[in-house]
Structure to design on (289 residues):
């Protein structure tokens, strides 16, 4: 029997299958499905390696956890434990315990969690994407060599990845990000947007009610801002080997302007926003009321 550990498990199934071969040998899959009791507005913490994570809000009475373990040794997979345990503060922690306490090369686990609600979500993996949809609370996201997508989230977001793009849509809360070799797409931001990337374009749009600020930096990429009509503050723009253009910024007061630098004030706030790139243009568009 496959190994598992869960508090108040309502049911579990496991399916073993062999996938296609590659130059190293056949890849074995061991799929687990677990049902765990739900605690309203409790945090969720998911940890895996060499695999993707998806945490999705779903109208249901329990928590459904689907795990795809894979590797080269069916016996090792059968002794691998999938944990879904409630911590002292009712956090639901989902993680993988590999035989001998160590994951071998070419082993990994993809985790999907379908949950009614959260008040805080943490997700950490390597060599895998992370998708968070419809959840709430402080989101702490960590991955390497993978993209991050957050949609319809309610709460502050803290994202770190390498070699992967970041996409945040229709989410409410301050956003801080750090990535490399990845583009940034943030739509309908309602608070702070702050972070760095490299070798990637940056696009940020704000809601009509958002006043910002926006502080972003990239290299070898262009930056585009689409600002709602209540956005205000001192906006500092810099680029090298690029062009700065503005449109629709009615009422903006010019403070400084040159070929590669622009500073202006929108509204009455002294809050500083700053965008900077190298080898890329900057375009700023304002939406009137």
């Amino acid at each position: 029997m496959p190994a598992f550990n869960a508090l108040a498990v309502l049911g579990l199934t496991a399916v073993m299958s062999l996938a296609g071969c590659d130059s190293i040998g056949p890849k074995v899959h061991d799929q687990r499905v677990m049902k765990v009791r739900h605690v309203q507005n409790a945090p969720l913490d998911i940890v895996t390696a060499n695999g993707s994570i998806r945490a999705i809000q779903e109208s249901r009475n329990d928590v459904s956890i689907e795990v795809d373990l894979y590797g080269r040794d069916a016996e090792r997979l059968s002794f691998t434990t999938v944990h879904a345990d409630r911590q002292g503060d009712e956090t639901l922690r989902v993680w993988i315990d590999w035989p001998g306490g160590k994951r071998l090369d070419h082993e990994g686990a993809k985790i999907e969690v379908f949950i009614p609600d959260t008040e805080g979500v943490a997700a950490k993996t390597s060599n895998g994407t992370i998708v968070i949809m419809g959840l709430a609370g402080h989101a702490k996201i960590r991955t390497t060599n993978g993209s991050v997508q957050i949609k319809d989230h309610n709460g502050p977001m803290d994202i770190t990845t390498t070699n992967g793009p970041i996409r945040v849509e229709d989410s409410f809360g301050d956003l801080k990000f750090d990535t490399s070799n990845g583009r940034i797409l943030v739509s309908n931001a309602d608070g702070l947007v702050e972070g760095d990337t490299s070798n990637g374009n940056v696009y940020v749009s704000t809601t009509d009610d958002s006043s910002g600020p926006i502080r972003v930096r990239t290299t070898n990429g262009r930056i585009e801002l689409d600002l709602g009509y209540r956005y205000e503050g001192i906006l500092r723009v810099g680029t090298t080997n690029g062009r700065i253009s503005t449109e629709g910024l009615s009422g903006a007061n010019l403070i400084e302007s040159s070929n590669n630098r622009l500073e202006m004030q929108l509204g009455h706030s002294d809050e500083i926003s700053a965008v900077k790139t190298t080898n890329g243009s900057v375009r700023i568009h304002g939406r009137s009321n």
About this structure: Residues 74-78 form the longest helix (5 residues). The two ends are 63 Å apart (CA to CA). Residues 6-23 have pLDDT under 50 and may be disordered.
